[in-house]
Each structure stands twice: as structure tokens, then as C-alpha cells.
Amino acid sequence: MTTTPTDTAKISVRRVRKTFDLKNSEFVALESVSLDIADNEFVTVVGPSGCGKSTLMNILAGLETPTSGHAVVDGKDVRGPGPERGVIFQQYALFPWLTVRKNIEFGLKVAGLRAAERRQRAEYFIHMVGLDQFADALPKMLSGGMKQRCAIARAYAVNPSILLMDEPFGALDALTRVTLQEQLLGTWSREKRTVMFITHDVDEAVFLANRVVVMAARPGRIYDIVDVDLPFPRTEEVRLSPEFGELRNRVWHSVYHQTPGVAAGHASS
Amino acid sequence: MTASTPRTSRNGAVGNPAASAADPASQPPAQDARATATQPPDSAEPPSPPGGRSTKRRPGKRTGLRILNAVSIVGGITIWWALAVSGFEFPTPPEVVETAIELWNDGILQEDVVASLTRVLAGFIAGSAVAIPVGFLMGWYTVARGLFEPWIQFFRTIPPLALLPVVLVLMGIGELPKVFVIFLAAFLACVISTYQGVVNVDRTLINAARVLGARNGTIFLRVVVPASTPFILVGMRVGLGSAWATLVAAELLAAQAGLGYRMQQAQYYYDTATIFVGIVVIGVLGLVMDRLLLFADTKLTGWQERR
Ligand SMILES: Nc1ncnc2c1ncn2[C@@H]1O[C@H](COP(=O)(O)OP(=O)(O)OP(=O)(O)O)[C@@H](O)[C@H]1O
Ligand SMILES: [Mg+2]
């Protein structure tokens, strides 16, 4: 509705509607959601619980199909999951019977890479997330932050052009969270990817993003889009700057003082 | 351990031996909402002597437990002995040992053990070997579930032994009917558990595999199979217990050799010592087999996060 879909966008969500059948009614999880994400852009999505953030991500991941509308990636309609779209789940979703290394190699094995090649690639990403000492440890021996780093390495290893992250740091303590945010941005600046990052933390949303998408619930829709023109690298200095504070307040207001029935078109244009 | 899920209560047939034997298996490892890993099926462990899972405890506590175990065993035997000499129709422990040695020297004990073990292993191995693929099929394909489920639900409410009369009529009096009821006992325990394991595989793990490019075959082999291993092993342990119980009862009813048969014979002659030998040997063999499976369990499912 607001954003006219263009063919140049890396990810293009076009008037997506998603309903779930309940006992004797239908529940509208997403209503006419349109969003373009440019190549190598880092977009964060915030919104109240139940506003359809995960649903939107699952549609892009190909784990759910929209009731109507299209999810387009690289100019092609999304049909099912694919290794070009890496997904990082809130619950880590590491295979508990595989070591860190084997977890990271999983996608490479599926892709048919030979053992030596797999090992070499896995080694690189293990090092990237700083898990060298735990390469042969099972997930049960890792802390939450280490598990999430392993999940990030596993997603990166198959070399996706898009990363979809659903509240990946949601279960972590504030300190680990900040560290991982900085590491994620570090990785992203070296290994550029198009990222859609879901969070319920306004600070996190602003700190990481080129653009913050604010969603509203009932029905799930895009409520506001806030451009974040803070400089990279995002340092502590940036986090403490007045500009950051202003953007944070703006997003905060959008999330916590939503006017019922307003969609992005009316709020931001 | 978390209580059984709604799915369990749907399957749970209450109030008969077959169902209660399989009950631990139908308590799936609790899925912690926050953890991706399946939790250990501790609750599913059949009753075992104290100290079974004490390996993770502090060494001090462990030796303490061991001492208590030893005290308990010595105490129990002492009470047995005391009862035997105070007029009960019990053989004393030395009499039982003596009888065991006699039976061994005559070659009878070995013969009985071999006969019983052969039956139970044949039935148990065949039962598990059929149960695991059937359980996977049921968990993976709706069609298979729809076709198999009514029969499995029906038969698990019947103690396998109750089928022995009809099986004897249909299969004659050879080894086959006995092995068959044992097969049934092991199969029913293991199939339900395997099915539960497949159904309980964490969706996010399957999704994680899918987004890494895995197709159904790979997901099945690399995610569903390993994720259900803990359930399968629990099912096998319950199945083994059930098989062993069925074996002894089957031998009491219809056999020409075996530990159950020997006890049945001894009963005619009021030969309580031989009966006691049978009981002890059955108990020890059952325990050894269970420990072997438990060992396999810890080797194969050590990846589980334990609470
Ligand atoms: N399979 C489903 N069947 C029925 N309703 C569903 C299903 N999946 C999601 N929903 C509903 O759709 C709405 C959006 O769910 P979604 O998980 O996308 O929310 P979310 O924004 O990710 O929330 P949270 O921040 O709590 O994770 C919720 O109200 C949820 O109850
Ligand atoms: Mg969500």
C-alpha cells in the first residue's frame, strides 16, 4: 500500500494476507502487508506480541504460505524453504546430538560438499563466531549465547544471501545480548547479507538497523517505518548519542502508543 | 518430570497390565518450552534398584548410596533367612545356593537358562525390529497411522498372555506360540514408544533442517531418527521387561524346558528351593539385560540435556 514494490528489491512482500482457521472463525494474522528490503539492508521488525512478526518471517522463509499476496525474493515467488534464505530461530534449534562442528556442517552436507571442504568451511565459521574451543562440544555444554553463536555460524555456513532472524537474542541476558549485537553487526559488515531481524526490544531494533519496521496487532500490519541514519560501525558511543535516543523514543512511541486501525500509510507518509 | 501430555492420555488405556507395562513409554520426554533438546525420559525408566541413575551425583553421595544398597541387600537376606528358620515354608539361602549348584552340575540350570533366553531374545529382537519401522511409519505417514492405530490400541489393552490359548490352538505346541506372544509383548511396548518419539520431534528442528536445504528423506534420517532414539530405547527397555514377564508366564503354562517350566515342575514336589533358584535367576538375568540396554541408552543418547 505505501511502499510500491519494485523489482530491484532483494525481498519484496506484496499485499500479504495470512489468516488462520480457528474453530469457527478465521483469525487475521497479517493484513495487507507490503514491504521492500534492499540488497544488504539490515531491517529490524518490532511490534507487540502476536502482531504477526514470526508469521511474516515464516512466510519469507517458506515455512508458511500466505493466504493471499506474494513474498518475492530475488524476483521470484517464495515456494518452500531454501538454503539461500538462512533462518535463525529464537530457540537456537541446534541439533542436540551433533557437535558444534557437525551442526555447522549440516547444511554443507545436505548441499553435497565433500568432507574436507565441509571441514574447512566449518572451521572458518567456527572461528568467526569464536567457538574454536568448543568445536567438538555438544550443544548441551554451551551457554545460551554460545548456542546462538553456533546457530548464526550454521546459518552463515551455507552462504545464504538473506538472513531471517526471529528474536535470536530474546532468551539472553542483557550483557550477552549487547555483545552479540555488536558481534552480529561486525559479522554483517564483513559478510554483507540482507537481514530481517525480529525483536521485541526497541533499543536492539534501533541499534542494529538501517530501518525499523513497527508492526501493530489485530490485524497484524505494518504501522510505521523508521529510517535509522546512524553511522556504522555502531559503537557504544552511538548507543549513548542523543540521535540514538531520539530514534529510540520515536520507535518506542510507535510500538507502545499505537492508534487503533492506523497503518503505515497514514502514520509515516 | 512433567506429567503426560494430552496425546498420552488419548493413548493411555488404564487399568490393565498391558497398558501399565507400556505406560512409562507413553510418557514422552517432556518438551521444555524453552529448550530445543528433548529432555531425558527419566520418568520412563522402569523401576530399578536404587542407585541406577546415581552416576551423575557427587562421589560422596554415590558411595553413601552404595553402602545403603549393600546394607539393604544384606538386611533383606537376613530377614529371609530368619523367616525360613522360624517355620515358614522357605528354603534358607544356603539351601538355595546348594540347589543351584546341584542343578548346574546336572546341566539342568544351563539348559533352562538357554531355553528361556533363546525364546525371550528371539521374541524381543523380532518384536523391536518390527516395532521400530512400524512406529516410524505411523509417526511419519498419516495413512499408516490411520491403518495401524486401531489395532495397536486394541491389542495393547490385552495382556499378550491372554492370547496364549488361541495362539496355542493356531500354532501348535512348539516354540512358535511362546516366541510369538513374547514378540507381541515386545512389539506393543516398542511401537507405541517409537511412534510417540516421531510425533514428538521438535518442529523447530525439522524447520531448521528444512531451511538448511534438507528434503524429507534427509530430515527423516538425520533429524527424526536421532531425535526419536531416546523414545525407542525406552520402548525397548519396557518391551524387554514385558517380554521377560510374558516368557516366564508362558513357560509356566506350556513348555517342556525353561526357567518357568522348571519352577512349575518343582511346585508339584513342593521343591521350594528350586523355585527360589528360578526366581533369583530370572531376576538377575532380567536385571543384566536391562542394564545392558541402559548402557546402550547412555551411549546413544548422551547428547540429551539433563535437568
Ligand atoms: N498455526 C497457527 N494457528 C492459529 N493461529 C496462529 C498460528 N500461528 C500463529 N497464529 C496466531 O497469529 C498471531 C501472530 O502470531 P506470530 O507468532 O506471528 O506473532 P509474533 O508477532 O511473532 O508474536 P511474538 O512477539 O509473541 O513472538 C498470533 O495471534 C497467533 O496466535
Ligand atoms: Mg514470534
TrEMBL record, chain A:
InterPro entries: AAA+_ATPase, ABC_transporter-like_ATP-bd, ABC_transporter_ATP-bind, P-loop_NTPase. SMART domains: AAA (SM00382). This is ABC transporter ATP-binding protein. It comes from Jiangella aurantiaca. Residues 11-242 form the ABC transporter domain. Pfam families: ABC_tran (PF00005). CDD domains: ABC_NrtD_SsuB_transporters. Keywords: ATP-binding, Nucleotide-binding, Transport. It comes from the Bacteria. SUPFAM superfamilies: P-loop containing nucleoside triphosphate hydrolases. One of its GO terms (molecular function) is ATP binding.
